[in-house]
């Protein structure tokens, strides 16, 4: 019998190619725009690293801030989210379901509204308002449901219930079985949750734009600032910096997560 | 390795779930020290519920009591009950090695490392997992996982061992060899064990006594041969093997006989029952002769070591006979049929 998969489909190939080009073109153009002397004349005006240098001089601190806030979000959602995910997975009460809904709200509610609420309540605490901690809190509110949902789904699996029962029959106390058996058993889900939280935190703009001050800027906020106030070439160079610094970090984390999942997956 | 032998007494234990369903009707059962008892029944019969009550993973309804030896453990949480349990899925800790799995119970008890290693070594020898100590569960075969689960459960020297469908996750061939191995291992440990299964052959091979369960209660308790030969209930007869049902009309009931293929066999002792049961292997087939029922072979199924014949005889629904593979009878043969009187089993169902 002839395999249908092997049949040539020129139309499908053409469509795929067209969609691919359509999506890759903006990335390539944006990279080019950051490297040419003058975007309106194009490559003829010559290549330069001047814009990159200018971006690094003005916005280097936003790269560090974004990475730190990303890491901080991961740490906070781990400490808050993993125990919370366990409780939600084991509780069948209506209060628990309601809590889960409330927890998920910041994903649906526009970031601006969440940020406004935070400012209304905590805006008067000046030193908090002016610190990166304020932005971190916003990011945690936004990313927590992603960690909780992912890990909670893993805790709910029948085999996890059986693992916990097995640990109990062997005499393990709650702390012993939570840290020694359950958390390691859902480790792949926790890693996936961390990766998602980090990625979302790095790219978060809505909330952050409302919460930031001139001294507390993350990378996407800086990007908006450069687009608004500087030459197009500088903005494009900034995108280049983002891709050069953030993407390798994300890829490295992704590779780490895959290795972990291979090693600890069941 | 020899373990403590503890008597288990279950007194009036029932289980009603929060939504009102009755998982288990009030049940009383005693397991003698060192005895292996199988809870046998179809799914939903309450056997797993009873096992979970014993483990302390579920609480019995008020009024029920569970005793291990002289100690009332009804109110003891599972962590302090001193049971070892083998789960259907084995529930091995996926991120731990075989040795760490086996030693987990000792670790959480704070046993020091030297002693722990010694105990793990002994158990690895006992269940013949030598050389696999550093493997993770995902790298093991089904049979090896089952042995790790057993070793982990007995490592903490439990008073009682509970086995929840321990062989259900294995394929048929492996199951057969492992059930004898498991039976032998339980005898060597000498531990009191309760074994839940829906497979009667597994129960026959492993348990000293069987408690057959149906719809939330224990129907009959006894050793395998007694239950098979003299079931006290049609459900027990049907669950433990195939049976043919011989119907009796009002006339047959009045005269204390069962009618089949033109003959009448006396079965006076069971005068009140609308039907009697007979196992396929208890049908004797031969040439037509006086006193034997006249029957016809309608269908022949060759099964390898045995042959199943479907037989029709006047006055009864079709019967199945289980005969040896050398049986000469073919489809359409006119044959004689005889059942020894002591092979007619009571159905315990009175005529309506």
A few lines on this structure:
The complex is a heterodimer of chains A (266) and B (352). Chain A is mainly alpha-helical. Chain A has helices spanning 10-35, 50-90, 94-108, 111-122, 126-129, 132-156, 158-169, 174-185, 187-203, 206-211, 219-229, 232-264.
Instruction: Specify the oligomeric state.
Output: heterodimer
State the helicity of chain A in percent bands. Answer: over 70%
Low-pLDDT stretches of chain A are none
CATH topology of the largest domain in chain B: Rossmann fold
Describe how the helices and strands are arranged.
The complex is a heterodimer of chains A (266) and B (352).
Chain A: H1 10-35, H2 50-90, H3 94-108, H4 111-122, H5 126-129, H6 132-156, H7 158-169, H8 174-185, H9 187-203, H10 206-211, H11 219-229, H12 232-264
Chain B: E1 8-16, E2 22-31, E3 36-40, H1 47-55, E4 65-68, E5 71-72, E6 83-86, H2 98-108, H3 113-126, H4 142-155, E7 160-164, H5 172-189, E8 192-197, H6 200-206, E9 209-214, E10 217-222, H7 224-229, H8 234-240, E11 244-247, H9 250-255, E12 257-260, E13 263-266, E14 275-278, E15 284-286, E16 293-302, E17 306-313, E18 319-324, E19 334-338, E20 345-346
Parallel strand pairs in B: 3-8, 3-9, 6-7, 7-8
Antiparallel strand pairs in B: 1-2, 1-4, 4-5, 9-10, 11-14, 12-13, 14-20, 15-19, 16-17, 16-19, 17-18
Helix pairs in contact in B: 2-3, 2-4, 3-4
Question: What are the salient characteristics of this protein?
Answer:
heterodimer, A: 266 residues, mainly alpha, MetI-like fold, 12 helices, 0% strand, B: 352 residues, alpha+beta, Rossmann fold, OB fold (Dihydrolipoamide Acetyltransferase, E2P), six-stranded mixed beta sheet, five-stranded antiparallel beta sheet, 9 helices, elongated
Descriptive overview:
Chain A is an all-alpha fold and 266 residues long. Chain A has one domain (60-264): MetI-like fold (Orthogonal Bundle), CATH 1.10.3720. Helices cover 80% and strands 0% of the residues of chain A. Chain A has helices at 10-35, 50-90, 94-108, 111-122, 126-129, 132-156, 158-169, 174-185, 187-203, 206-211, 219-229, 232-264. Chain B has 352 residues and is α+β, with helices and mostly antiparallel strands. Chain B has two domains: 8-239, P-loop containing nucleotide triphosphate hydrolases (Rossmann fold); 244-346, Beta Barrel (OB fold (Dihydrolipoamide Acetyltransferase, E2P)). Chain B is built from nine helices and 20 strands. Chain B has helices at residues 47-55, 98-108, 113-126, 142-155, 172-189, 200-206, 224-229, 234-240, 250-255; strands at residues 8-16, 22-31, 36-40, 65-68, 71-72, 83-86, 160-164, 192-197, 209-214, 217-222, 244-247, 257-260, 263-266, 275-278, 284-286, 293-302, 306-313, 319-324, 334-338, 345-346. In chain B, strand 9 (209-214) and strand 10 form a beta hairpin. In chain B, helix 2 crosses helix 3, helix 2 (98-108) packs parallel to helix 4 and helix 3 (113-126) packs across helix 4 (142-155). The radius of gyration of chain B is 25 Å and the shape is elongated. Classes of the chains: A mainly alpha (266), B alpha+beta (352). The interface between A and B is medium-sized, with 22 and 27 residues.
């Amino acid at each position: 019998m002839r395999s249908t998969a092997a049949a040539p489909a020129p139309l499908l190939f053409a469509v795929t190619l067209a969609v691919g080009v359509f999506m890759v073109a903006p990335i390539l153009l944006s990279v080019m725009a950051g490297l040419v002397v003058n975007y309106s004349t194009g490559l003829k005006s010559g290549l330069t690293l001047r814009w990159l240098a200018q971006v690094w001089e003005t916005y280097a601190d936003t790269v560090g801030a974004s990475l730190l806030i990303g890491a901080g979000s991961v740490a906070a959602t781990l400490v808050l989210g993993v125990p919370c995910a366990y409780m939600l997975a084991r509780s069948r009460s209506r209060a628990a379901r309601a809590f889960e809904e409330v927890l998920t709200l910041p994903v649906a509610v526009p970031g601006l509204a969440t940020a406004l609420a935070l400012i209304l309540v905590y805006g008067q605490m000046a030193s908090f308002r002016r610190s990166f901690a304020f932005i971190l809190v916003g990011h945690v509110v936004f990313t927590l449901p992603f960690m909780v949902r992912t890990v909670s789904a893993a805790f709910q699996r029948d085999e996890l219930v059986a693992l916990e029962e097995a640990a109990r029959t062997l005499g393990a106390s709650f702390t012993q079985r939570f840290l020694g058996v359950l958390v390691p058993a859902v480790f792949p889900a926790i890693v996936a949750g961390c990766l998602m939280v980090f990625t979302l935190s790095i790219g978060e703009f809505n909330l952050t734009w409302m919460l930031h001050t001139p001294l507390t800027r993350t990378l996407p906020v800086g990007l908006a600032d450069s687009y608004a106030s500087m030459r197009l070439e500088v903005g494009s160079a900034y995108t280049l910096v983002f891709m050069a610094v953030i993407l390798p970090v994300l890829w490295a984390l992704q590779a780490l997560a895959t290795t972990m999942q291979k090693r600890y997956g069941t | 390795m020899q373990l403590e032998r503890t008597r288990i007494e279950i007194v009036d234990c029932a289980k009603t779930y929060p939504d009102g369903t009755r998982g288990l009707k009030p049940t009383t059962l005693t397991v003698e020290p060192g005895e292996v008892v199988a809870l046998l029944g179809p799914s939903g019969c309450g056997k797993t519920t009873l096992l979970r009550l014993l483990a302390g993973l579920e609480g019995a309804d008020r009024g029920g009591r569970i005793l291990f030896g002289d100690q009332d453990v009804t109110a003891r949480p599972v962590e302090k009950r001193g049971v070892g349990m083998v789960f259907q899925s084995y529930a091995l800790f996926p991120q731990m090695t075989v040795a760490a799995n086996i030693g987990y119970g000792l670790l959480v008890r704070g046993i020091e490392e030297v002693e722990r290693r010694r105990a793990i070594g002994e158990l690895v020898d006992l269940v013949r997992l030598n050389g696999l100590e550093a493997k993770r569960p995902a790298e093991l075969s089904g049979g090896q996982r089952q042995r790790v689960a057993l070793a982990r459960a007995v490592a903490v020297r439990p008073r009682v061992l509970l086995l929840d469908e321990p062989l259900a996750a294995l394929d048929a061939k492996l199951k057969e060899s492992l059930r004898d191995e498991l039976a032998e291992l339980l005898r060597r440990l000498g531990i009191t064990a309760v074994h839940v299964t829906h497979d009667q052959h597994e129960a026959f091979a492993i348990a000293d006594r069987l408690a057959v369960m149906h719809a939330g209660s224990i129907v009959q308790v006894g050793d395998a041969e007694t239950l098979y030969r003299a079931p006290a209930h049609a459900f027990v007869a049907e669950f433990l093997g195939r049976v043919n049902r011989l119907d009796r009309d009002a006339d047959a009931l009045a005269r204390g006989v069962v009618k089949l293929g033109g003959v009448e066999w006396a079965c006076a002792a069971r005068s009140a029952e609308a039907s009697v049961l007979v196992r396929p292997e208890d049908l004797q087939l031969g040439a037509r002769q006086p006193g034997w029922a006249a029957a016809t072979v309608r269908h022949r199924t060759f099964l390898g070591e045995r042959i199943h014949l479907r037989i029709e005889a006047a006055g009864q629904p079709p019967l199945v006979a289980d005969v040896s593979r050398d049986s000469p009878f073919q489809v359409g043969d006119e044959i004689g049929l005889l059942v020894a009187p002591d092979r007619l089993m009571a159905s315990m169902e009175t005529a309506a």
